[in-house]
Structures are given as C-alpha cells and as structure tokens.
Amino acid sequence: MENETKESIGTVYEISYLFVPNIAEENLPAKVTAIKDLVTERGGVFISEDHPRFMELAYQMDRTIANKKEKFTKAYFGWIKFELSPDKIEEISKHTHFQEIIWERCSTTSTNRRRRSETSDKQGGSRCGDREDGKC
Asked: Is 101 among the domain residues?
C-alpha cells in the first residue's frame, strides 16, 4: 500500500500587518477578507490566521496617509498564513498597501514550521503576544 501525500502547490507564506487604530472594530473582518481574497484569487490556499487585535506598539510608527504624516502608538495586529506558487507572491505584495495598513510584511516559512504553527494556532498560540511586555 502506498503512502498518500498532500500535493504542495507552492511555498508557505505569512503576511503580518498592522491596521490603523481608528478602524471600527466591526470593519476589521472585511479588511482581513480583502487580504485573504488577494491570496485565493491567485490560487493560494489559506492555512491559518490570527485575527487582528488591538495593542500598544513597542515604538511609534509613522505612515503618510492622504498626504499627511500620521503617528501611531497603537494598532490592530494580525497575520495570515497561506500556500501559494512563488511566481504569484509579487502580485500580492503589490496589492497589500491599503491606506488602513501602517505596516505589513510578507515572509516565507518552512514546511516544518507550517506543521508546528498549525498545532500552535489551534492551541491559541500567538506570535506578537509572545513578548513578555505584550507589545508588538
């Protein structure tokens, strides 16, 4: 009997983001869905996420919004993990610069990390909250 293996469609990526603090909390799911749609529209497969949560930042971040420099000390932090063909990731990076995002980063993860983090995510693990001071 042969072992069945899940066919991989590409590389595992993670987008971490900070949304501006003045977004109404009820509007956050729509903002996250917009990012997830960028992934699925390009053939990506959603793996896991940490819903945005309001937190104090470890340091002030500046962002120009509507030609005005804004300063932020608090934000909504969240992340999305997905698998995607490497030739599609640049398209996503070009489209994640929404006005409401202070900062975002897209990084790759290894297959082993994916397995570990899926277990951790189910147990309520958190990346940013791992700091002792609770700041991001």
From this structure: yes
Read off the pLDDT of residues 113-125 as tens digits, 9 standing for 90 and up: 443 344 333 333 3
pTM (2 decimals)?
0.70
- Asked if residue 4 belongs to a domain, the reply is no
**In the chain, alpha helices (H):** 28-40, 89-95, 111-122
Phi, psi of 64 (to 5 degrees): -85, 120
- Classify each residue of 53-91 as buried b or exposed e, where b means 16 or more C-beta atoms within 10 Å of its C-beta: eebebeeeeebeeeeeeeebebbbbbbbbbbbeeebbee
Contact 13, 107 (CB under 8 A): yes
Helix, strand, coil percentages (3-state) for the chain, rounded to 5, are 30, 40, 30
